[in-house]
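Q: I have 141 residues here and want to know how they pack in 3D. Can you give me a structure?
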Amino acid sequence: MTVNQILSTKGKEVYSILSTNTVYEALTVMSEKNIGAILIIEDTVLKGVLSERDYARKIVLKAKSSKKAFVYEIMETDVVTVSPSDNLEYCMELMSTKRVRHLPVLENNIVIGIISISDVVKAIIELQKDTIQHLNSYITQ
């Protein structure tokens, strides 16, 4: 299964903000959209990603104010990305080795979607269900 197949199931909707937004504004969007990370895109260019983990470690634990801090102060700028043709195994390896939970999907350097660890796990479960069903029908024939 490829990233593109996951996106065709879950959709390609992407939420983004600007690096000059406050962290509080970013968290508000994340809460409204029920997402754990948001992309920072400026002039169609992916500049970074901000996750709940970034907020917890770089604002809360350092006793900073999310209403005064800007996204550019805490966002991750070294963003790990994938392409639509990448497979699940590659995504799992990236998420594990790079310790990330979200992978923006780029095509021709433009963000066309984002997948999360949850999306990858759901896809793997579906693949396993299909395999089990196939094996069951093979055995019972």
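Q: Anything worth noting?
A: Residues 117-140 form the longest helix (24 residues). Residues 3-140 form a domain with the CBS-domain fold (CATH 3.10.580.10).
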